[in-house]
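Question thread 4412

I'm putting together a teaching handout and wanted feedback from people who do this every day. The idea is simple: show students a protein as raw sequence, then show them the structure tokens that encode its fold, then repeat with a second protein so they can compare. Below is the first pair exactly as I plan to print it.
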Amino acid sequence: MAKWGEGDPRWIVEERPDATNVNNWHCMLLNLSKNLRVEKNASTWSKDKLKELLVGLKVKDGTGECEIKELSKIEGEASANNRKAKLIFFYEWEISGKWSGFIDETETTYKGEFEIPNLSEENDPDEIEIRVTCDNTSDEAYKVKEIMRRTGTPIIQAQIAKYIKDLREEYSQGIVLPTKTLGGTTKITDNNIGTENIAKKEMNKIIHKKADSKDTGTKIRTKTLKSKEEFKCRASDLYRALTDPGMVSAFTGATAIVEAEKGGKFSLNGGNISGEFIELIPNKKLVKKWRVKSWPDEHYSTVTIELTEKEDCTDLHIQQVGIPDADYDRTVQGWQNHFWERIKQAFGFGVRLF
């Protein structure tokens, strides 16, 4: 059979100079492709991956530590489908397991169980419910349980987000139908693999340079962001939330790389945000080079975060210099929605009004 691009008129879907649709094959082939469906069962792989990500997972908050000891139930299924050249992922799981933990002061071990009743594609990772119970009803046991529930929930959600990401990467291979335009593969888009947060899509948009612009020396109009946020915690706790890899992974919902030292690198949200630490004063100040993947090559902003501890809260002052003009509003919303609010929610640093 002739290959794409060879121009052989025997190839029934090749364009012909006389525009002839030979034996109506174009319509027949189109109908065939519409009905074609490729499916892979991902259930066994998913069970192994969930065990790998959750069993042995440790949760720490500065007062104690918990660890997931085993998964006692993983019931459900997962699959990947190619329908009409679009990838569709289906997964639905009920998970339960056992955990143990202790308070640093006494190191008395307490045990309990946890349940994830709604792991499915209908919920984003940060919407997935984690139910935690403890075998003991003492005050100290309650404190340990709260470590597992409050601090552990976003950490477990981050591991679930990694499971979803790995599922899509692992099972997008081998079920993608060939197309002429892309040389044998169907491009995987956000629509193929599920709905993604609109703000994240906007942050990932490519900024195209003008045809006559150069790779170096291109002038970019920028703005400076200045704002203040209040957190109900000590400055040391907030500083750790911004520099500890586990805590950053917990509130961002994805594995984070954070080398909290001068010259150390950081990478957040799957590499969409990256940069380098310039200055660190523990519990007081952070200065770092910061860029979003969609920004023009080699363009960095400078982020300065200062913490001021008060009697009942800690004030965070942020200044970001060098934000591309077109991304200013998205950057303001990004800090508020994906950093400050998530930190408050994940670690209880917010203000509750009754």
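The second pair follows. I'd like the answer to focus on this one:
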Amino acid sequence: MEALPEETQIQNENQKDDHQLESQSPSSAFSSKPIRPPTQTSSQKYSPLDWHGYFDNEDDVSIPNSNDVFHIYTAGKDGPVVLCLHGGGYSGLSFAISARIIKEKARVVAMDLRGHGKTSTENEIDMSIETLCSDVQAVVKTMYGDAPPAIVLVGHSMGGSVAVHVAAKKMLHSLAGLVVVDVVEGTAMASLMHMQKILSNRVQHFPSIEKAIEWSVRSGSLGNIESARISIPGTVKYDDSQQCYRHRARLEETEQYWRGWYEGLSEKFLSSPVAKLLLLAGTDRLDRALTIGQMQGKFQMVVVRHTGHAIQEDVPDEFASLILNFISRNRIGPHGVEIPGIRKLSQPHA
């Protein structure tokens, strides 16, 4: 892939400035050529970063009686479990930088959903909401058995819809909190008619991982270069036949499931019987049901300014603080909701 016009222009300007400085004679014995930091090449600026500086471990969760193996990243040793579900086309690494902060007071588990990251399933295309919810339930069951710790579900975009459905269906009896990141039913449903065009218009092939990272930043998909350098490698894979990197998730083949992700999402969110937080990027986009629900105090809402769709990547420090404040405000401990003098355990559902 050829260098982007902006990149070529920047390199040319740097070379021209260096030549001008070298050709100028010092005006006095005390003046000298200004010390300039070396120009950072594109490959250095967008080089991949390893997850080790953010998560503590990575692991595979093999689901009994199936060939499905879900890849997870974990951090922290104490406190409730913050179970992170990424959006369509992302991976568990989307929560890397925030995990480094959250793990100081809670445990973090970020999983690669079906058809994403390093997860391997028999059917990569079956991304129905029922299957995605069952996957989350199976991972929790396999990891913690019949005595799971208190869980705070955090879901971004498509992962947010999965989190809401899991909560509304009471599929995790130790669920103590629900955080939905930048997904609202009305906006999501309205955008579905444009989704195939958006997917087809994005760059499909990358000669290197560095170019994939650069594209994600320059296209505006992600606003934080550090986060892009960690998370983007988990969203592409090498195609031997084409000798290039391609998007890992085959989202364009899952269109039949899209409406199921978002239909009825507002009512399901409001009916979820746990503490709830809705994080929105930029502008307030509440539909009627959520507007009424917020006025009635049924959930907490925070509009995070100056960020794109991936709040957890663009402003990871602020995101982590919001998650920890939510846990503290609702007194969520490792065993459920902690009330001074009383421990209120999450009630198993029938």
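Top answer:
Good format. For the second protein you could add a caption like this: The first helix runs from residue 5 to 23. The longest strand covers residues 69-75.
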